[in-house]
Amino acid sequence: MSVTTTDSNATAPTQFLQGRLETYAYRRVGGGIKRPLICFQHFTGTLDNWDPAVTDPLASDRDVILFDGAGVGQSTGKVPTTVAGMTAHALDFMDALCLISCDVLGFSLGGMVAQQMALERPSLVHRMILVASAPRGGDDIMHLEKPSLAKHLGDPTLKGFAVLQKIFFAASPSSQAAGGAFIDRLARRKEDLDTPSGTDVAAAQIAAFREWERPNAASLAALSGIQLPTLVVNGVHDEMIPVSNSYRLAEHLPNAVLLVYPDAGHGALFQYHESFTRHAAAFLTSDSQFAPY
Amino acid sequence: MSVTTTDSNATAPTQFLQGRLETYAYRRVGGGIKRPLICFQHFTGTLDNWDPAVTDPLASDRDVILFDGAGVGQSTGKVPTTVAGMTAHALDFMDALCLISCDVLGFSLGGMVAQQMALERPSLVHRMILVASAPRGGDDIMHLEKPSLAKHLGDPTLKGFAVLQKIFFAASPSSQAAGGAFIDRLARRKEDLDTPSGTDVAAAQIAAFREWERPNAASLAALSGIQLPTLVVNGVHDEMIPVSNSYRLAEHLPNAVLLVYPDAGHGALFQYHESFTRHAAAFLTSDSQFAPY
């Protein structure tokens, strides 16, 4: 197990870890005495999609560990078509890191993996942050065919990260400006880049969204068994996974604080990175059994 | 204008201020260089209903000013039957204090007064905190006839503050324990007590709720014109003014952060007073034009 760390995801070397199931590409940022924070990534996102303005401040006194799930980026294997399948690989990766307790940050699809992990192995997760995510059985999850999203995803002029400025941020000039700053930060990384996701990754992950979205009252109820302190975060204008899903998470998770940002969409954590990392650090650092920080 | 201040609402002397319309009972806690925070009170609440665990920490570096609206406690006059009428008195009180800029904390009914003030005189309010409140045209506002509330309000064994433990807090043992601590804190004040509200106060304020609750799409839309930074706070299990009203506030106010607490009802700010005052102070102290803190 490597111990190479660095202070920014703009420069952290990509490393590889052999699990029981696959070999995982990962990066480790920062370091310190606090419990490590493992980050679960969004739809088609790779190691290069983690905003250094989010990872780096959180890494000032803890390890922030980013990884590619099976079949994503430079990790081996195939992308599972269910969140449970992705969770099996996340657990495999964390077991290979010899982690027995950690905090998790799940963004969008990653927040679904975090919930599944909290259900399957609650002893592993100390505190959980779910950003722009949804409960199993949630509403209107990642319907990329919606006109509000399709017009950007089908725009051939939006190359590379540029489409994220459109779909992760609200339409207002202020949110779009924050989106421009976000993609500029992602572009700071010039070397040792990850492998961008192709259509096979997207198709498998979309299948997982459809399976996760199936109406399922029992799964909503199952959230009430997750006692771990949770911070639920969203932008009020999220078109990809509407904020109502964050409301449902906070209503069913018995120990969750909900924080919703104005004038922001799916990428509220990137838009308000200073506020988000301040709240996240305060939440993670609390030693209370209750979520409020 | 008096300048008597003290460090706790458990001991702050009740003072009186002559306005253009009425004479208002008020208290001033703390002091400091920061902008004063004016607090607008809940249904039938008087000066004695402000929890020192909320007022006092916020007063460590600012004046926290509590007052009775017209016809409430020891203020002269009649209780208006509309929020707009109450707002006229609140403005009268603030004008008599010679305030040209302040922050406001509105709890429940008080949050409606705060919204009305932000619409009528936006120049006066710098930042606004709305706790357990509702927009005009909101849902299920203060229907005390609901079984979940009526069973407590009609219980003759619940004297004085005791009913607040039942209706401001969730049913869980942890929330009820917090409710017990809350009413113990209110009971710390032994002298110079305010006049409890009678049925005439309750009836007028209920009339104001009914007027505020009338479906009114234009009023929801009017919230989009309130640009001032706002912090919206609620408990997820609020039976008096359901949390969906806080969702609507955060969705329509263009510059509002939403913070929702778990395992808590209408009185989430009292239950999580340490967290609430930390968040409120951070929010009030921010000098950004945007709400996120």
Please count the helical segments of chain A. Answer: 11
The general outline of chain A is: globular
Largest sheet of chain A: 8 strands, mixed
Intertermini distance of chain A: 33 Å
Q: What string, H for helix and E for strand, traces the elements of chain A in order?
A: EEEHEHEHEHHHHHEHEHH
Protein architecture, described:
The structure is a homodimer of 293-residue chains. With 293 residues, chain A is an alpha/beta fold. In chain A, 37% of the residues lie in helices and 17% in strands. Chain A is built from 11 helices and 8 strands. Chain A has helices spanning 52-58, 83-96, 109-120, 147-153, 162-167, 173-186, 199-213, 217-222, 244-252, 268-271, 273-285, and strands spanning 15-18, 23-30, 34-40, 62-67, 102-107, 125-131, 230-235, 256-261. In chain A, strands 1-2-4-3-5-6-7-8 form an 8-stranded mixed sheet, sandwiched between helices. In chain A, α1 (52-58) packs parallel to α11 (273-285). Chain A starts with 14 loop residues before the first strand and ends in an 8-residue tail after the last helix. The A-B interface holds A 174, 236, 243, 247, 250-251, 253-263, 272, 275, 290-293 and B 174, 236, 243, 247, 250-251, 253-263, 272, 275, 290-293. β8 (256-261) of chain A pairs antiparallel with β8 (256-261) of chain B, so a sheet runs across the interface.
